[in-house]
Amino acid sequence: MRKKLRVAAYAVCVRDGRVLLARSPAEDGTPEWVLPGGGMEHGEDPHDTVRRELLEETGYRIEVTGLLGVHSFRRPFPRRGLRRPVDHHSVRLLYAGRVTGGELAFEVGGSTDMAAWHALDAVGGLARVPLVDIGLRMWRECGAEGRAPDPGGGA
């Protein structure tokens, strides 16, 4: 079985009670909402990856305000056609981001076809990938600065 490692960076951008998401077709072609972001290029810093991917997928420039966490998973993909089966390992860095410029725009010829702001309380009703919920949970726990709140004891 062929082994594949993918390292990617995503951003959770929340503004005025709304989260920025991009739309991408699922394996069966059905559109799903995803966190904007994507795979690192060889030699690229993940901090630069998330800023580049956000601009490509949404039209916005962002400031990375913190690292929310890292999510890792493995999933085997069965053989398809003449292709060998793949043991896929994905390492995803999730950042908090703040929009600093640009205008909402849709990616052309990429992995997403549109981007939009969604009310946080409406996300549960969207067709979305699990990473959206993972990212929002990390954001709620860590906040926009990428830090868990101090439980009251100081350092």
Structural class: alpha+beta
Shape: globular
Q: Would you tell me the overall average pLDDT? A: 90
Beta-strand segment tally = 7
In this structure, how is the largest beta sheet organized?
7 strands, mixed
Q: What is the name of the CATH topology? A: Nucleoside Triphosphate Pyrophosphohydrolase
**What pattern of helices and strands is seen along the backbone?**
EEEEHEEEH
Annotated CATH homologous superfamily: Nucleoside Triphosphate Pyrophosphohydrolase
List the uncertain runs.
none
The amount of helix comes to: 10-25%
How would you describe the oligomerization state of the chains in this entry?
A: single chain
Please name the CATH architecture.
Alpha-Beta Complex
Q: Tell me the name of the CATH class.
A: Alpha Beta
Explain how this protein is built.
The protein has a single domain, classed as Nucleoside Triphosphate Pyrophosphohydrolase. The chain is built from two helices and seven strands, in the order ββββαβββα. Strands 1, 2, 3, 4, 5, 6 and 7 form a seven-stranded mixed beta sheet that branches. It is globular and about 50 Å long. The model has no long low-confidence stretch (mean pLDDT 90).
